[in-house]
Amino acid sequence: MKRAEAQAEQIDTLLTPAEVAGRLKVSLPTVYRWIRSGALPCLRVGRGRRIRESALQAFLERGATPPPEPPEALLDQLRAFRKRLQSKYGTLNTLDLLYEVREQR
Questions:
Q1: How does DSSP classify residue 47?
Q2: pLDDT at 62
Q3: Which of 19, 5, 6 is nearest to 53 (CA)?
Q4: How far apart are CA 84 and CA 56, in angstroms?
Q5: Alpha carbons within 13 A on the beta-carbon side of 46
Q6: 78 or 20: whose pLDDT is higher?
Q7: What is d(CA 92, CA 86) in angstroms, rounded to the nearest whole number?
Q8: CATH for 2-62, among 1.20.1300, 2.60.40, 1.10.1660, 3.30.70?
Q9: Cα separation values, 20 from 25, 38, 47, 57, 58, Å
Q10: How far is it, in rounded angstroms, from Cα 14 to Cα 96?
Q11: 9, CA 20 to 30 Å: which among 22, 81, 93, 101?
Q12: Does the pLDDT at position 52 exceed 90?
């Protein structure tokens, strides 16, 4: 009987990404970014993903960090794309919008 109780304690609860997002009060895309970056380990169950309760606790103990900012190279590509659009369509304020979005994070 003790062995069965010990095994029951070792079984982790599996959480969906939506449940994790609800518990942590973050968006679902944020949870998926943590999963893709490897910061939050998960299991594949069919086409879905599940996060072990113990993995979530370890993640929180390490300190949940926000997903990384876009690399400077990506911003350079966006600037070049903006210039091409400006030359074809005239003045655009897309870079200003990008900076506003970046500052809101």
A1: T
A2: 86
A3: 19
A4: 44
A5: 2
A6: 20
A7: 6
A8: 1.10.1660
A9: 8, 15, 18, 11, 13
A10: 42
A11: 22
A12: yes
Q: Is residue 12 a contact partner of residue 52, using CB atoms and an 8 Å limit?
A: yes
pLDDT for position 16: 95
Report d(CA 29, CA 6) in Å as an integer.
Answer: 36
Token pair 């970056």: residue: 37
CA-based torsion, 21, 24, 27, 32: positive or negative: negative
What stretch of H or E contains 97?
A: helix 94-104
Residues of the chain above pLDDT 90, percent? 30
Q: What CA–CA distance (Å, rounded) separates 6 from 12?
A: 12
Output the average pLDDT for the chain. Answer: 79
Distances (CA, A) of 79 to 17, 75, 91: 34, 6, 13
Token representation of residue 36: 């893709």
Q: Could you tell me the end-to-end alpha-carbon distance of the chain, in angstroms, rounded to an integer?
A: 52
